[in-house]
Amino acid sequence: MVRREGCRVIAQMSYEPAQLQRGYAGRTLYVNIGTGRIEERPVTEMMKEKFIGGRGFGLWRLWNAVDANTKWDDPENEIVIGSGPIGGITTYAGAGKSIVVSLSPTTGSVIDSNVGGYFGPYLKFSGWDSLEIQGKSDEDVIVFIDGDEGTVEILSCPEEDVNTHVIAERMLRRFAASDAPRDLLSVSTVSAGVGAENTRIGCLNFSFFDMKRKVPRVKQAGRGGIGTVFRDKGIAALVVKHSGVSADANGPADMERLKRAGERITKEIINLDPSQCDMRRVGTAHLVEIMDEYDLLPTCNYRFGSHSDAGKIASQVWRERFTQGVPDGCWIGCTMSCSHAVDGFLLKTGPYKGDRVTVDGPEYETAAGSANMGIFDPDFVLEMNFYCDTYGIDTISFTTASAFVMECYEAGILDKARTGGLELHFGSVDDSLTLLHQMGRGEGFGAVVGQGIRRMKEIFAREYGADPEFLDSIGMECKGMEYSEYVTKESLAMQGGYGLALKGAQHDEAWLIFMDMVNNQIPTFEEKAEALHYFPMWRTWFGLMGLCKLPWNDIEPADNATRYSGIDAAKVPDHVQNYCDLFTGVTGIEVTPADLIVQSERVYNFQRVFNLRMGYGTREHDQIPYRSAGPVTEEEYESRAERYDRQLVEQVGVKPDSMATEEKVKVMRAFREEQYGKLCDAAYKRRGWTIDGVPTIATLKRLGIDFADVIKVVEPHQ
To answer: What is the DSSP letter of 325?
Structure first.
């Protein structure tokens, strides 16, 4: 029996759990925590055809819940969580993803963020294709979905500590049938923490019970501040309970087809991963030394791309610290098993000082973010990782914002008087942790940093007289979202990958650095534009289906590079065929790779129009900080003087011999900003958008999303 001691039932609905058919439950769950209204809403054939699932369903539900004037903290804003028709299968690696959609506190527009863990699959197996949360509560509440009993409840929350590592454990114990591991495994939660409510960069933590460690683990929907929306609504936790997962729980049309595709990828992972990315033993942290070698690891606020101390936080360090071995995944049946953790880490600071905890990760982005702060201490990485997670703060936004602050401190824009006594030089371990705890409490200078880079730029210019142009050049954000951790100065395509990403500066739309910079596979504007079309469409497709992108191209068939070349090899065609087989195997609908691209185009263009509706979605909002494109300061130029001088000769057509460094910087900037403008022109043309970055009516008609309210938004921009 579920133990509800101390929980007051605010509202309740009973429903009949239904078997999934060809990947769909056929309904979504709506919960208004302000009014207590709970209802099921049908999934129409139009939704399945045009919006598919996951990210698509989230965008469609949110579009119909808000209007152009809705703000992130209005009751009308929603948090929509869902998987997709393929999500939750146990026969193919990476099928445990959920997508969260909301209006963002950092960008002011629509945000999507993907996350691993068990919540999305359990929600689906409980009979719901997605969950809509709307309204605001005057008290902390729990939304409990019991997929075994067929009930949905809004409950008062008796817990005082809402930090994730505490509340996730207590929710497991409270809502599982017993403390037996198998019963604890049947419960998954979503939570945030005090940092989410006291900053704009809050993340959501999706928990699952680790059977080997006997503790809850968490994965993050990190980007865009959705955790802040979550806590602003007064939600302490979402809880779903579902017992028993079977290979055919999705009700697939062709189970044998799924099995064959799964056998192919599993064989590749087991045989080839150790000699390729070694994801099963070290996960994304394997990238640290690779990025450092290619001058792509951000250090000191993206000024530089490598550091002599990078080895102190490189993969070998994490190999030695990660515990439990292989497999160590975040969903049942995922043979990629890249979800690693460190057990028994002794906290040295903060409210839980002296506790030994399990730290999920670090992932590459967290370790590289520490490098960006000039800190190469693995204990700092783990301490920061843990507290960001439990407070509900996005590690990417925390480290990138902190690196910006550190450069401002060293440039004289900030000092101890303005930071409340913190000495925030690059490499400042103790004061950086103090800053993080301030953010968790919403106090001191941490309350300022927790607003994010875009708002800090406004504050520093207004209150401290800082040069706005300098702040814009070094403040690594686009659309209000902090950059993830890659130096893009020598990859024009990757600059576009960040600047043109719909939600802001996140690499999960198009990671093109190696294809562009290292391998020179897309040298022309047209080829870069084609890559900026194709690869975001695949990343979008994974978000429609409930899939992780890692099994796509972080593991490749042994003969991939010999059978295919250039950009074709980067597409990993054998895996693309796998995805066609997965979609057909689940839904029964025969598809080609081109069909899957069109599925994504519909949702991608719809989201661009959604941005436009919210006051964004035009060319001006795709502009990037110049630090993303080239050297802002003379120091940066001089650090790579030979490279830049050669480029001035070969690319710009000027002789730098008699030029002062200041002049070289200006000439280089004018050239690179012009190049970025030409890239945008080419990308907009390839995508079927206007020169201002708005989807044309012809494009919307071709994709079948020329709904009256969509056309009304774009017509003034044609």
So the answer is: -
Best CA proximity match to 292, nearest among 319, 314, 273: 314
Residue 374 CB partners (closer than 8 Å, separation 6+): 299, 300, 403, 406, 425, 426, 427
Beta bridge partners of 220: 205
> Running DSSP on this structure, what letter comes out for residue 351?
T
Structure tokens at 330: 């975040």
Cα angle, residue 535 at apex, residues 250 and 280 outer, rounded to 5°: 60
Query: Over the Cα atoms of the chain, what is R_g?
Result: 24
Among candidates 29, 106, 34, which has minimal Cα distance to 75? 34
Task: For residues 577 and 643, give the distance between their C-alpha atoms in angstroms, rounded to a whole number.
Answer: 41
Residue 176, number of CB atoms within 10 A of its CB: 22
State the maximum Cα–Cα separation within the chain, in Å, rounded to a whole number. 81
Burial per residue of 13-47, b for 16 or more beta-carbon CB atoms within 10 angstroms, e otherwise: bebebeebebbbbbbbbbbbbeeeebebeebeeeb
Express each pLDDT in 423-447 by its tens digit: 999 999 999 999 999 999 999 999 9
- Are 337 and 328 spatial neighbours (Cβ–Cβ below 8 Å)? yes
Read off the amino acid at residue 34: G
In angstroms, the first-to-last Cα distance of the chain is 59
**Length of the chain measured in residues:** 718
What count of Cα atoms within 13 Å lies in the side-chain half-sphere of residue 400?
31
CA-wise closest residue to 400 among 326, 478, 462: 478
How far is 13 from 36, CA to CA, in rounded Å?
Answer: 10
pLDDT on residue 565: 87
**CATH code for the domain defined by 510-555+592-717:** 1.10.599.10
H or E segment to which residue 154 belongs: strand 151-156
Tokens representing 255 are 């189970």
- The CATH number assigned to the domain with range 9-241 reads 3.60.9.10
Please tell me the predicted confidence (pLDDT) of residue 3: 63
For the chain, the domains span 9-241, 277-482, 510-555+592-717
215-221 and 204-210 strand pairing: antiparallel
Other beta carbons within 10 angstroms of residue 718's beta carbon come to: 12
Alpha helices, H only, 210-359? 226-232, 255-272, 279-282, 287-293, 315-321
pLDDT tens, position by position, 138-183? 999 999 999 999 999 999 999 999 999 999 999 999 999 999 999 9
Write a three-state SS string for 31-44.
EECCCCCEEEEECC
**What's the pLDDT score for residue 2?**
56
pTM: 0.97
Phi (first) and psi of residue 13, to 5 degrees: -140, 135
Question: How confident is the model at residue 325, as a pLDDT?
Answer: 82
d(CA 589, CA 18): 22
Q: Are 88 and 95 in contact (CB under 8 A)?
A: yes
Other residues' Cβ atoms within 10 Å of the Cβ of residue 173: 15
- In CATH, the architecture of 277-482 is Orthogonal Bundle (1.10)
Token duo for residue 11: 């509202």
Q: Is 183 left (phi over 0), alpha (psi -120 to 50) or beta?
A: alpha
Q: Residue 204: how many CB atoms within 10 A of its CB?
A: 34
Quickly count: other Cβ atoms within 10 Å of residue 320's Cβ: 9
CA dist list (Å): 355 to 136, 193, 343: 34, 18, 12
Encode pLDDT of 295-338 as tens digits: 999 999 999 999 999 999 999 999 999 998 877 899 999 999 99
Give Cα separations from 637 to 17, 422, 673 (angstroms).
62, 30, 16
**Which residue ranges of the chain lie beneath pLDDT 50?**
none
- 649 φ/ψ angles, rounded to the nearest 5 degrees: -75, -50
* Cα gap 291→280, rounded to integer Å: 19
Q: 539, 99 in Cβ contact below 8 A?
A: no
Helix (H, G, I), strand (E, B) or coil at 397: helix
